[in-house]
Structure of Cyclin-like domain-containing protein:
Amino acid sequence: MSDFQTSTHRSKWIFTPHDLMQKYQVSNQRAARTLRMEVDIDGSLSQFPEPLSTEEEQLMRVFYEHKIQEVCVAFKFPHKIQATAITYFKRFYLQWSVMEHHPKHIMLACVYTACKVEENHVSAEELGKGMKQDYQSLGFDLIVHAPYRSVEGFMDGMEDYCRGKNDKLHMLQETAKLVVDEAMLTDAPLLFPPGQLALAAFRKANDVHKVVDFPRYLEHIHSRRQRSNHVMSELIECLDAIDDYSVMELETPSAKEDLRHTDRKLKALDPSSQEDSKKREKKSKHKSRKT
């Protein structure tokens, strides 16, 4: 396993909130500009529907990140593959807009690529084949440092700290994994190192199970890390910032309506979706004539 401190993950794929928003805005504006300049075969400017906003793009990304988790659960893939696939998906859409590449295709390519990189056999026919463009958009940086490995590392340290097996430690670990699952659906993995994501997850899990005095535990692990680049106050500030990133709610009636509306807008911008719709309509009319 490569070291995160010397990895391309750390040097190329951790951003500030400002830089992250700027990347989303640049890809959104480029896609909107390209769509406006599309020319029909007869030479007239196409009358494209309204492009998606950056907020609507975020809604679509989060929806398909949920789908990646569902696919990984259905195939019983380990958490590492799930985290790697979602990370690939996030990185891809730092370079592209959902208006340029539909997430339903990129989603499967990311899962497939994650399986190949993590050496978990799955056939291309089951998930769909990976795309060369995916690799280029990822800068060919395929090694992902997932928070789940850090969760395991902190768990080992916590067992030592508690001087043996605590009955609640297993529950603490499982809850921490669930917290990481949620964090993976936010921008946090693009803003914070995996170790900090894992530590924030343990802190939140400990709020539920009350296993240790967490401030004292933080002091303990911080004192043992002589090469730490953070003072304690900075570390706590980072953990608090991670806690501020909550998963976008998709199950409320208003969120579902927003999602349907955004999906319709995206389909209207996708020529292949329009062509499929015309084929279905033509097929339906043909059937009605026969009856």
